[in-house]
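To the wet lab folks,

You asked to see what we're planning to order before we commit. Fair enough. Below is the target structure as C-alpha cells, and below that is the sequence we designed to fit it. If anything looks off to you, flag it before the synthesis order goes out.
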C-alpha cells in the first residue's frame, strides 16, 4: 500500500512506523522541519517501555515532494489543522484513495467531506497513546485497539482488506458498523473531562472529589447526550454520564490532553469537543449553554497561555 501520514507527530509516527515496518510504502508529511530532518538522517525512533526501535521511513515537510497518488491518507494533525493540511495534499488523492481519520472530537469528517466524496472517507477511534519525546523520537505510551468504519455505515470489502493490513502490521484493528456512535462515545468522555481539568489544572480523578466539578461534568455530558439523541446517534452506554465518571476514575492519575495543551501554551481541540456539541446543538436545535460557556472559557484560557 502507498500511504501518506499527514501530521506525523505522536500518533501519526506510531501508525506510520507500524505500516512502514510491515512493508508498506509510507511517507510522513509534517511541517516540523527539525523532526523531518532527524527522521531522514537517523530514522524514526519509537520508544516503547523505554526500549527504542529505529524505523527507516521517508519524511518531508513539503507534500509536493511526494509525486504519486496514495492508496491511504492517514490524517493525524490536530483537528484545527485538518483543513489547511488537506489543502496542501490534494495532489495525493485519486479516485481510489481512502482517507482515514482517527483524530479526537467531531468535525474532522465534515472537513474531509469538503475535499472528497463520502465514499472515500473512513473514521474511527484509537486507544493508542503517544507523545513526542524529541525531534524524531516518539514515546509509545500505551497500546490499544483501533476501530474503523464508514460514517455512512456501508463498510466494503476493501475496508476489510485495509483492516487486515493494519493487523498484519501489529495494529490491533476492527471494522465496525455504526462507527459514528463510537466516535460520539469518546466525544462525550472528552466533553466531560477535558475542559474542566484544563481550566482547573487538575488530574482526571480530582473531578470526582468535589461536588461542584462532579455536577459540572454531569451537566456538560448531559447536554451532549441530548444533542446525540436528537441527532439520532446510537451511543454504546445506557448511562453516558456514569460511563464518563467511570473513565475519570479509571484514569484518575492522568492529565487530560487539553490540560497538557494548556500547560504547554498550545492551542486546544476545544472547537472539536465542547465546541462541536454547541455547533451540532445549533444544527439540531438543542440548547447547550454550559458547553458554550466552557468553550469560551477555554478559548480565553488559551489566549492567556499564549501571552504568558
Ligand atoms: P501532535 O501534535 O503530536 O502531532 C500533530 C502533528 O501535525 C505535529 O507534528 C505538527 O507539526 C503537524 N502539523 C501541523 N500542521 C500540519 C500541516 N499543515 N501539515 C502537516 N503536518 C502538520 O498530535 P497527536 O498527539 O499526534 O494528535 C493527533 C490527533 O490524534 C489529535 O486529534 C488527537 O486528539 C488524536 N489522538 C491523540 C492521542 C495521543 O495519545 N497523542 C490519542 C488518541 C487520539
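Sequence we intend to order:
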Amino acid at each position: 500500500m502507498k500511504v501518506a501520514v499527514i501530521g506525523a507527530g505522536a500518533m501519526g509516527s506510531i501508525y506510520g512506523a507500524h505500516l512502514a515496518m510491515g512493508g508498506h510504502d509510507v511517507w510522513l508529511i509534517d511541517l516540523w522541519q527539525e523532526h523531518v530532518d532527524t527522521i531522514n538522517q537517523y530514522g524514526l525512533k519509537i520508544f516503547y517501555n523505554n526500549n527504542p526501535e529505529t524505523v527507516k521511513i521517508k519524511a518531508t515537510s513539503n507534500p509536493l515532494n511526494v509525486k504519486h497518488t496514495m492508496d491511504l491518507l492517514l490524517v493525524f494533525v490536530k483537528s484545527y489543522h485538518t483543513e489547511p493540511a488537506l489543502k496542501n495534499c490534494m495532489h495525493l488523492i485519486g479516485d481510489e484513495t481512502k482517507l482515514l481519520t482517527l483524530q479526537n472530537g467531531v468535525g474532522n469528517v465534515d472537513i474531509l467531506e469538503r475535499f472528497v466524496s463520502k465514499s472515500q472517507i473512513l473514521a474511527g477511534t484509537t486507544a493508542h497513546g503517544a507523545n513526542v519525546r524529541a525531534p524524531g523520537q516518539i514515546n509509545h505510551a500505551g497500546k490499544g485497539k483501533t476501530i474503523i468504519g464508514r460514517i455512512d455505515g456501508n463498510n466494503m470489502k476493501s475496508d476489510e482488506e485495509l483492516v487486515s493490513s493494519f493487523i498484519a502490521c501489529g495494529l490491533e484493528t476492527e471494522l465496525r458498523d455504526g462507527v459514528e456512535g463510537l466516535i460520539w462515545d469518546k466525544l462525550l468522555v472528552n466533553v466531560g473531562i477535558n475542559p474542566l481539568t484544563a481550566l482547573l489544572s487538575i488530574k482526571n480523578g480530582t473531578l470526582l472529589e468535589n461536588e461542584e466539578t462532579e455536577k459540572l461534568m454531569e451537566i456538560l455530558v448531559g447536554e451532549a447526550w441530548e444533542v446525540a439523541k436528537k441527532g439520532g446517534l446510537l451511543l454504546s452506554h445506557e448511562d453516558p454520564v456514569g460511563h464518563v465518571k467511570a473513565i475519570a476514575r479509571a484514569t484518575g492519575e492522568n492529565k487530560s490532553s487539553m490540560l497538557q495543551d494548556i500547560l504547554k501554551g498550545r492551542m486546544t481541540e476545544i472547537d472539536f469537543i465542547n465546541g462541536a456539541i454547541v455547533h451540532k446543538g445549533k444544527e439540531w436545535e438543542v440548547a447547550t449553554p454550559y458547553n458554550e460557556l466552557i468553550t469560551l472559557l477555554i478559548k480565553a484560557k488559551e489566549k492567556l497561555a499564549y501571552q504568558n
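Structural context that might help your review: The mean pLDDT is 96. The longest helix spans residues 179-200.

Thanks,
Computational group
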